[in-house]
Design goal:
The structure is a single chain. By secondary structure, this protein is of the alpha+beta class. It is 45% helix and 12% strand. Strands 1-4-5-6 form a four-stranded antiparallel beta sheet. A three-stranded antiparallel beta sheet has the order 9-10-11. It is globular, with a radius of gyration of 26 Å. The protein starts with a strand and ends with a helix. 44% of the residues are buried. The N terminus is likely disordered.
């Protein structure tokens, strides 16, 4: 933590902070103005403080602070315990994912964007693939079963993401039990992800044209059993949180952001809905057949951190409702294709989980290695070179756990994106940090940032 403190002696300043120790010159006590600073970017602030002749402290919260939800740096100017100015510094986790995608095939791009917001990878995968399908003109060709599986996976991922928000938010306030229950509940969902995709996170499961493979036998029953367990954990979280007087005092009226402020800053997701606007991309611009599912969009008028906590809890229940509908549909429709029929796009082939955890289907390997030279050549070119996408540009958005996730893709007709850019909700929502924190106490900064639920992997993509 770095501080810069202009102080004068003797006694203390108006905020109660101790002034600098006086020094003796020729037997006289002389008040000395001192500065403590770290980092070249503090020099201007120190000069301004000296010019104003006011006592103030500038504190670095982060970028390694445990409650900044990643390598986020918050520059706080405080007067006593009151935050008078707050600024967010980003860029400490920059990964260059969007630029890297320009040097990979369209399918390989999935393995990059899934690593952006690492708590909600399936949303980035789906948004990207929906955009690629628009450019290819195959949106209506994606099998219904693949769309239902996408919805299933996204809604399970929404629950898992919100659980991390609730768990880490509780831990940052000292409620370790909330964190333990939240992560234990999330573990049930990660087991389902591992069963279906072979991986707990960063799945690369959603592919242009569908999904990599169908859900394995018995997965529907496993998911139903997991939902029962997760509901039990949510009941425990409600008992711990909803009537907790300490939690009420710490969250109610803290991190206030009204509707006009949220609209001006481009804030979306639970933060926007906590201000009274029921905007949800699943309702306003449906994709993957969301218009055929029965669910509600929870809203509040309180515009504070408490309302965002309650909304996220309710959103999890709505997601469970959607998951149950997808399971009913998958059970009713039975096995079927999960990838477009066009073999020039359907990469890599249907997969089958083997003893090693992943692998191509044995039938496909048998064909390309022992039966058809043409199939082997096609497979080789499709995997190494990739398919071509018609020239053009497209924008696609989905309802991410943190707000509206947008994807802008540009194709020059080649086998890899000419440009890929993501409108990550965490990046836009962080703009609200200053307005939510200024005027509150330092302890309230932790609450305000937690209520935004930023993930820096999406911010510094």
């Amino acid at each position: 933590m770095s501080t810069q403190t202009p102080r004068t002696a003797p006694g203390t300043g108006p905020s109660g902070a101790p002034r600098a120790t006086p020094r003796v010159v020729d037997g006289d006590t002389e008040g000395v103005r001192s500065f403590e600073a770290s980092g070249g970017d503090w020099s201007d602030i120190a000069e301004e403080a000296a010019r104003l002749g006011e006592e103030r402290i500038v504190v670095n919260m982060g970028p390694q602070h445990p409650s900044t939800h990643g390598v986020l740096r918050l520059m706080l100017e405080i007067d006593g315990e009151t935050v008078t100015e707050a600024r967010a510094g980003i860029g400490y986790l920059h990964t260059g994912i969007e630029k890297n995608m320009e040097y990979r095939t369209w399918v390989q791009g999935v393995t990059f964007c899934t690593r952006m917001d690492y708590l909600a990878p399936l949303f980035q995968e789906t948004a990207y693939c929906l955009a690629v399908e628009k450019l290819l003109g195959i949106t209506d060709d994606v099998p219904e079963r693949a769309s239902v599986i996408r919805v299933l996976m996204m809604e399970l991922n929404r629950i898992a993401s919100h659980l991390v928000c609730l768990a880490t938010g509780g831990n940052e306030l000292g409620a370790t039990t909330i964190m333990i229950i939240g992560f234990t509940a999330r573990e049930e969902i990660l087991k389902v992800f591992e069963l279906i995709t072979g991986l707990r996170m960063n799945h690369a499961y959603v592919r242009p044209g569908g999904v990599a493979q169908d859900i394995p036998p018995g997965a529907i029953d496993t998911i139903r059993e997991a939902l029962v367990v997760v509901r039990g954990y949510f009941k425990q979280l409600e008992d711990l949180m909803m009537a907790n007087p300490i939690l009420h005092l710490r969250l109610k009226g803290v991190g206030y952001l009204n509707l006009s402020g949220a609209m001006a800053l481009g804030v979306t997701g639970p933060v926007l809905r906590s201000a009274g606007l029921p905007y949800d991309v699943r309702k306003n611009a449906p994709y993957c057949g969301y218009e055929t599912y029965d669910f509600d969009v929870p809203v509040s008028q309180d515009s504070d951190s408490w309302s965002r906590l309650v909304l996220r809890m309710e959103e999890c229940y709505q997601s469970m409702k959607i998951v149950e509908q997808t399971l009913d549909r998958l059970q009713k429709m039975g096995p079927g294709p999960v990838m477009v029929e066009d073999r020039k796009i359907a990469w890599p082939a249907q997969l089958a989980i083997g003893s090693d955890g992943m692998g191509n289907s044995l039938d496909h390997i048998r064909e390309i290695m022992g039966t058809s030279m043409e199939a082997l050549i096609h497979h080789f070119k499709l995997v190494t070179e990739g398919f071509r996408v018609p020239a053009g540009q497209v924008f696609q958005s989905v309802e991410h756990p943190r707000g509206e996730l947008g994807v802008h893709l540009v194709s020059d007709g080649g086998t890899r994106p000419y440009r890929a850019h993501f409108r990550d909700p965490s990046f836009n929502n962080l703009q609200a940090t200053s307005i939510m924190c200024e005027g509150g106490q330092v302890a309230d900064v932790v609450v305000a940032v937690a209520s935004l639920d930023p993930v820096l992997g999406g911010v510094d993509r």
